Amino acid sequence: MGRPPLGGGTTGTILAEAEVIWKGGPDLVVPFFMPPLIKSQGGKAVFITDVTANTGNLASPASTTRYYLSDSKTVDPNIATVVGERLVDPLQPGQSSGANTLKFTIPVGLQAGTYYMAACADADQGVAELNEDNNCSFNQLQTSTSMVVPLETVLDVTPPVVTAPADISIEAAAILTPVSLGVAVAIDAKDGPLTATADKTGPFALGTHVVTWSATDAAGNTGTATQIVTVVDTTPPKVIAQLIPVDVEEDEGTFRVVFSATDIVDPNPVISATLNGTAVSNGQIVELNRDEDMEVTFEHGKLKIKGMTFELSVTATDASGNAATASATFSFRSERDDDKTSHGEESHES
Ligand SMILES: [Ca+2]
Ligand SMILES: [Ca+2]
Ligand SMILES: [Ca+2]
Ligand SMILES: [Ca+2]
User: Fold this and answer.
1) In the prediction, which pLDDT does 204 show?
2) CA 136, 141, 145, 149 torsion-angle sign
3) I want to staple 246 with a disulfide (CB 3.0 to 4.6 A). Which of 1, 18, 225, 254 is the partner?
């Protein structure tokens, strides 16, 4: 880089054969530079401190010390990004230009990542020096050893911003209901888009569930957002009511009361049943008589009901309070309306 070192001084031969070469000139170096390492982002400030010294034996004129940014540890000033520079006053031999803390801005549009910095004295190559190859802070030459101080100017302490999918309210499809939660969005100011994961993905039982979505950036900061999943049951049970004939004659007969209820969610809905207003149980045998007068009696433990029509009414209620009813009716064949013969029937209603 640049011109060869200037020769200087005088030579003289007096007695013995000896060769003495005098060289004289300034030698600019950067013995201290900070920071060599930055973790930051484009548009943000970076603070730079350097010492530029003249380790030569002649004064140096004013010079320029320039700062470079590189995405690799090897900084080549010829291709590295220039962050800034400062003017260095003329320096006497052995004199330093004191440490300066200068604020520079990292170029906007720089890719996210870790960058390395270097400072080079006489970056304009306007000063002829004894050594032109030791001007940068990364030089480890005899005349100068730069002290580099790793410094993370900006630590990432900001968690990603997580946006959870919309809350979901869904009708139960079973005791456990599969739910498509959707996808959360996570953006980190430094790392960019990240993947967010849910702490639970179902299937979900009846009720309200808090799903926590989280994403963690490269520095270990975790951002979260919550999504509420509500599984509801608005569907009543299905109810079956039957009066099954066991032994039926013209105007009296024996029947079996049969009923049941099933619910998508509740395995045991509450069921109650009445026959012409009298409570009956599933499987119970009852005796029905055709009679103008209504009467309910128990004989030898058997329920006997007199009447013209008979109705079994069954109601079932699930745990969410949804109720449904079903009924079964029966009428004996009547002499007066032979053409309106009625048999046991069942019907379902909600
Ligand atoms: Ca030099
Ligand atoms: Ca030079
Ligand atoms: Ca972050
Ligand atoms: Ca239900």
Assistant:
1) 97
2) positive
3) 254
CA distance 160 to 216: 7
Distance 344 CA to ligand 4 centre (A): 28
3-state DSSP call for residue 187? strand
- Our CA dihedral for 181, 187, 191, 193, rounded to 10 degrees, sits at 50
Q: What's the pLDDT band for 189 if we cut at 50, 70, 90?
A: confident
Ligand located closest to 160 CA: 3
Please give the Cα distance from 54 to 121 (Å, whole number): 10
User: Mean pLDDT, to the nearest integer, of 155-166?
Assistant: 88
How many other β-carbons are positioned within 10 Å of the β-carbon of residue 269?
Answer: 23
CA of 120 to the centre of ligand 1 (A): 9
CATH number for the 161-232 domain, one of 3.90.1010.20, 1.10.10.10, 2.60.40.10, 1.20.1250.20?
Answer: 2.60.40.10
Task: Considering every ligand atom shown, identify the ligand nearest to the alpha carbon of residue 29 and give its number.
Answer: 1
Ligand nearest to the CA of 123: 2
- 28-148 falls under which CATH superfamily? Immunoglobulins (2.60.40.10)
Q: Does the pTM exceed 0.90? A: no
Alpha-carbon distance of 79 to 112, in angstroms, equals 19
Domain boundaries, the chain: 28-148, 161-232, 238-349
**Percent of all residues in the chain with a pLDDT value above 90, rounded to a whole number:** 59
pLDDT digits (tens, 9 = 90+) for 213-245: 999 998 889 999 999 999 999 999 999 999 999
Q: Among 5-14, 97-106, 239-248, which range has the highest average pLDDT? A: 239-248
Say if 28-148 and 161-232 have the same CATH topology: yes
Ligand 4 centroid from CA 263, angstroms: 5
The pLDDT score that the predictor gives to residue 46 is 75
